[in-house]
Amino acid sequence: PALALLRTAATPESLEVSGTRLEFLGELITRQAVKGKETAVLLRGIFKGSPCSQQNGVLRRLQVYKHCIQLVESGDLQLDIGSEIIGLLMLEARQLPGAAMAELATLFVDVIKGGSLSNGKSLELFSTVLTALATSKESLVYGKGELSGEEFKKQLINTLCSSRDIPLSSEELQFVVEKVLRMFSKLDLQEIPPLVYQLLLLSAKGSKKTVLEGIITFFNQLDKKQKEEQRIPESVDLEAATVPLDQLRHVEGTIILHIISVINLDQDLGRELIKLLKAEQQRDPGKTLCPFSVALVLSVAIKHRFEEQVFDFLKMSIVRSCKDLQFLQGSKFLQDLFPQQYDVASIILEVVENSAFGWDHVTQGLVDLGFTLMESYEPKKILGKAAETSYGLSKMPAHQACRLGANILLETFKVHEPIRSAVLEQVLNRVITKATSPINHFIDLLSNIVVSAPLVLQNSSSKVTEAFDNLSFLPLDMVQGLLKAVQPLLKVSMSVRDSLILVLRKAIFSRQLDARKAAVAGFLLLLKNFKVLGSLTFSQCSQAIGASQVQADIHGCYNSAANEAFCLEILGSLRRCLSQQADVRLMLYEGFYDVLRRNSQLSNSIMETLLSQIKRYYEPEPDLLPPLKLEGCIVAQGDQIFLQEPLAHLLSCIQHCLAWYKSTMQLHHEAEEEEDDDYVGFQQDLDEMLESITRRMIKSELEDFELDKSADFSLSSGVGVKNNIYAILVMGVCEVLIEYNFNIGNFSKNKFEDVLGLFKCYSKLSEILKEKAGKNKSSLANKTARSFFSMSFVSTLLTALFRDSAQSHEESLAVLRSSSEFMRYAVGVALQKVQQLEETGQTDGPDGQNPEKMFQTLCKITRVLLWRYTSIPTAVEESGKKKGKSISLVCLDGLLKIFNTVQQLYRPKIPQFLRALDIANDDAEEEEDINVTEKAAFQIRQFQRSLVNQLSSAGDDFNSKEALSLVTIISTLSKLLDVMPGNCHFLSFLAEDAPCCKGLLTLLFSLHFLYKSPVGLLRELAQDIHAHLGDIDQDMEVENQSHFAIVNIKTAAPTVCLLVLAQAEKVLEEVDWLIKKLKNHLVLEIPEDSSQASSQIQSLEKAIILQLGTLLTAYHELVQTALPAGSCVDTLLRSLSKTYTILTSLIKHYLQVCRSGLGTISGRLEKLVKLSGSHLTPQCYAFITYVQNIHSESLSFAGEKKKKKEDETAAIATVMAKVLRETKPIPNLIFAIEQYEKFLIHLSKKSKVNLMQYMKLSTSRDFRINASTLESALQEKNTEDAENEPDNDQVRTLRRARARAHGGHSLQDPAEAGLSLGVC
């Protein structure tokens, strides 16, 4: 019947479009479908009779589609019939024209919106319609316009997703969200932003965390894939290649804007975002803290409601990341477990880089974060810049965070031009407002900002001028830093330069000393950087900030010719400073040399100024002694005496400037074949004056200066202060003249004899000052004054004394080498200079602030000192009759200082430094690769041989200080090694000296931590300590297994014991950190990486249990050792408490594992519990009894003393207080043990494994009566009762005896200990 009907209905005439006919077709299809008879045949016939080339056929097909969709969704059909109908409709769908498909797709959208879908079977057809629609080439009407098929499809999806009125349960909503998130990877990147926006709107109903986590995870994976492709471009398959980088960044920026706009509507979404990131940061920061999420959260920070939360979270994440990285860097054991180190700092800097792609909404958050990090760090007030540049201090997490903040601001400043003025103003504001605290980090940032964009200062010149008004109130180093930073602006802005000069002129006449010094610093900076026409160009000028900041030569009104009048005017202002305080003059003398070198056309004016100044204090009569008028160098104000003229600094300035003038300007004049009369005049005058002063200083006696041993040098009287000033001035003049005569002497014997004569004068005064300082016990007078030698001269002098083997120099150098005091003094000055460099980052004298010159000089000095120490050992050297260190020992101290300084200040140049020590000539190729480990190992072996010789020497020949210095040097050099040195055999030598023993063991531990875990070493050392100190049970004989000869009866306690416990504390910290990581891994659920996560968890568990197990065996030895009362016992008790606390933490972790059903306890844990129950807990209680017994004996001894001498109550009280203090950790230890056992019981119940079978319940704290002890105590009491009535002290003694019978734990009230006691 159906076929007959089909034949009738299939003619075009019979299928005319009318309401009746269409209704008839619908009823026919319904009847056939419900009966399940030949439905597909009927539909094929209808489609055959409805060709798409005719309008009626299209309308008829469309009506059939609509009816079939309603029929399938009605639920009246059998499942196979519905599938057959949908399958046929899907096949015929591509035949429909674009407009029909658009209408059909719109129908589906309306049905979905209306919620009339019952089983969703027809949605299979919807996906086919959408796919066909996307490929349609027709223009489709949408609203008032036209769209292509692809655009129409996007609009439909957008409309569908924007419908948030569809009623969904929470489970359905979660399913929809997860389904959409999974589809991200299959969509084109440009289609994702509208879909994300609709998802965010949908999240108002729930699943906020899922939506945010899915979005962050998706873009995190895209970023990682993009990075991998950039790292290995040749490995990328063309088909698998991701989208272009700029496209990805723009899409990410759009999505961040969408999220921010939705957060404006729904504040809960913002709170959920911060909550999500905080939770994941605790668990696995690498999962959600990525460049995309950091950019997102920084954009959210613009909202004041979230600003504080966001910055607190980011600051905490950064500091925690820095701490974790620092923790990992100090332990090879942890590095092996965590090879991939997560670094928040690099991620934030990547956000700055990404923000260049139009992420303007992130820039303000980046700026605020940068300033937040910088303000959270306050540098220590240390002289100079050592506090900022020291590599040791930079390891502090707070300092690292500050440096990151500076980098964020600098990079953001470079990338985003619109915010430059705002950043610069904020930096200048902080420089001005934070003047009372160190602001070097802001000064450095300002300098770097100006270097990156010098002309940006022009837009903020008013702020700079305002900062100048506050110069008088800023510390001197801040003034210098600020002026150097803004110096480029002075060359291009007349108004700024004029305002600065006005401020500096006012400051010169200020009553405040700091203001005057600031003025001198400012004027000197101007003189260095505003060159006069004709000035020579020197390579040293590259160190001037101006030369590196402004590459272009600026002409116009600020050209070189116009600078001459400007500079001469400044010099006129500076001449007035020569009549001010000593500190002001001192700054001027120290700055003239740099001005002269960089602005050579000012040399005549400067040299004339210095000549006129020295003439005030120079005695012109050639035979008059002394040659200098010292009385003019001091000034009296009431009863107090002050230095007015730093004469030695003036002479030093003259000497250096004259030497430069001779070597440079003279050659310049000769090259131009001209001669300057002024040049000849002042050079001759100065040379004659220095020669005359030298000659007369050698002839002068101390009495000529009114200085001798009978003079008063006490600082409490005016005469004593005056004599101290005179002595320091004379010593400084001697040093300046020594350098002058050595330099001009050209290895003349007569000149070297003059040098030695000057040194004798210096040493006499030095001895007198030391002697008087010792008598007066004045720490101020005992401080050695800084030497006036320049660093380059120290290098030249040491090389001549120790390494110069030229035949022509031998006779003259023999004069200096004949004086061991002079050679020791020369090495001592080198040590002082290196120490100043280490502390402040610079030295006094020429080139002292030039890092490159200082490094080169340091290499030369090191080479000389190293040769001197290795060539002439201390044991061979005659120290002479006078007391003091030998030259070799001073050389060793210098080497130690130099190695530390190089690692702090010149870490990038360590390869060049090691090469300089190894290569005798400077002509070696600089291009060769330097193996730092090989070079460092070579130096270590040299010092190691010296140390072995020291440890092998007899008792009187052993030098403890030298051995300790050698150990410290080896420790310092060992930080440069990449592989474990194979020879640490020197530990097998006997070392009874405690400091040397401590140094050796510290070195050993540091090496072990860098290359492997030291737990095995701790166990061996603990066995040695036990063997030498004996057992707490006196009847027990300990087997003597000596692993290290360095552990002996003299060093075992407290030296070795405390070191072992300190290292055990570090191991416990590592284990505690690992347990926290283990708990974080447990919380994470990563189905796709479950096997990888499981293996990582197992490796962590194995590492933790092995560490704790080996450490327990070390404690097993220590708690059985008869340690003396004091620090060893106290530290051990505290360490045991921490051990049990960490064991409890591990048990809690396994308890959580069992509760969550993620696993069971391992066999390793059972072994660890068994070990703690058999080898630690019983011994701990025995050790507690031992400790309280030795303290009881101390109290008994104090009681006996009291009976003898009633007036010694104070001594007894001291003993009582000491005992109470040292027994305080005992209750904590017992509580920790009980907590451990408590959670073991819980774990046993959960895991169905009886872990308590390995634990013996303690009875030492119960009041179990020891019969034998009680009987002896009672007999003692009866004997005392028979003799006389007991006094109160005897009653207390009896009570203590009974307490010992009860177990020895009643020195403290049980309630105080927080413990429950039971009576058996």
Automatic annotation (TrEMBL):
Q: Name one GO molecular function term.
A: DNA polymerase binding
Q: Tell me where in this chain the FANCI solenoid 1 cap domain is found.
A: 25-49
What is a biological process (GO) this protein takes part in?
A: DNA repair
Residue ranges occupied by any FANCI solenoid domain in the UniProt entry = 60-263, 362-524, 789-979, 1017-1271
Q: Where is the FANCI helical domain?
A: 268-354, 539-770
Q: Name one Pfam family in it.
A: FANCI_S1-cap
> Where in this protein does the record put region Disordered?
1297-1320
InterPro entries, per this entry? FANCI, FANCI_HD1, FANCI_HD2, FANCI_S1, FANCI_S1-cap, FANCI_S2, FANCI_S3, FANCI_S4
The name under which this protein is listed is: FA complementation group I
